[in-house]
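REVIEWER CHECKLIST
Item 1: Sequence provided? yes
Item 2: Single chain? yes
Item 3: Sequence as submitted:
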Amino acid sequence: MNKEILRSGLLELGYNLSQKEEQDFEVYSNLLVEWNEKMNLTSITDPDGISIKHFLDSIAPIFKTEIAKDSKVIDIGTGAGFPGVPIKIIRRDLDFTYLDSLNKRITFLKEVSKNLGFEKAEFVHGRAEESGQNKNMREKYDFAVSRAVAPLKILSEYSIPLLKVGGRFLAFKSFEIDDEVLDAKSMIGNLGAKIIDIKEVKIPNSDLVRKIVIVEKIKETPKQFPRRANKIK
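Item 4: Structure as written out by the authors:
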């Protein structure tokens, strides 16, 4: 990773990176590059790209919303740990669950967690639509985050059933999302939630801009959701 890009980018967001946190990001970056040689985790492995497109892009959006101390957070379709691991590095208080359908990614994340000394971190190999029907996970989380590449309508059905009433889903989206939001509104309502805000965030040291769709759960999700994957699609 490029330490200067990461440090200056976080300063621009109003966050002063500690020496320990910087070391944690470096360990994570090294593991990402090393493990990527034996399994396909990411196409971005250059130092600048890791610092901007993985680390800053994961962290910047959380400065646009308040996540209370010790909140239970689930990262849906976490992949190689984005956005959840970078967030956890600077918010050790958060109780994170990392969910992914590929077991080899979960194995990688457990290794990252061991090297970084994470506490309050759980790693679940499973599909989001099955987890949403699992009584140990359904309606258990204060926040759900996802940077997964899927339409908002689909991501909402994966995420909202996992939230407590009053919980929030933060969907990290690329810039043009008007049609996607319009298409998702009805389903979000059916799931017992509503869009309360859409925030825009410029990723420091880049031309990248994210939009964060903030969805709040206002009542329990009907039992039929989430449906099976083929129905959702």
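Item 5: Key structural point noted by reviewer: The first strand starts at residue 72 and ends at 76.
Item 6: Recommendation: ____
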